[in-house]
Predict the 3D structure of the following.
Amino acid sequence: MRFLIAESETPEARSERRDSVGRSSGETYLAVLNRLAPDARCDRIMPADADAALPSDMALAGYDAVFLTGAPLHLYDETPETRRAIAFMRALFAAGTPSFGSCAGLQVATVAAGGSVRPNVRGREAAFARRIVPTEAGRAHPLLEGRPAAYDAPSIHTDEVERLPEGATLLAGNAVTLVQAAEIRFERGTFWGVQYHPEIGLDEVAGALRRQADGLIEAGLAHSEHDVEDYAQRIEALHREPGRRDLAWPLGLDAQVTDEHLRLAELRNFIAHRVAPTHALRR
């Protein structure tokens, strides 16, 4: 199989993420996909970069799947970066290649297909999205296979999907963010996406909190940088020893977050149910 990872972080955001956790969002996806599909060939591009050499529709059609990473893009702002990211997603829909995205990946696909994104109206969702509940359609959808009636997931975002495009299917939501998972069909393409981050480990959650400490304090989620650092350190301790219930319990977390196999459910399901059957037909 051939995978393409579309990393829409700006160069500045990419550098900040590497400084805090040692890898960019695309490099995180690359490591995860190498574990889930070790025989797959993975390429990586940066659609939002000004000097990005983007593949044509025909070249995109040569991939078995495209994965869109998270990124600090505000899709309601008209900037060169958002225009390039949306143009890439529209080319991907036109190519018909199966695609998956998390966080900003879901938002890019939403806007490219005619929906809208806005700042979170119920405040930040930081560190973890709590009590995500599949809709009736979501309970029957292969993207959420194996997920329980309610679950938590790594998540940190300041924007959310305001309106899904016509023809999209809402698959899950929670009290903070209405659209936590969705399927979007547009032109020749089908996109499966989530607002949360199944691909990131707890060390990356801690890094994200540290990078956004000022915003968390401004939002009233923490009183001081010391509070943010204390929370980040407790999350990191659980990352080092994920089997320790005494570390998980104070954070209110269970195996849906601490067990990597369970946490990666959506990515594994996408490859098994959406990508592998199409790849078999193309051989």
User: Anything to note?
Assistant: The longest strand covers residues 128-134. The chain has two domains: 2-201+264-282, 203-255. The two ends are 10 Å apart (CA to CA).
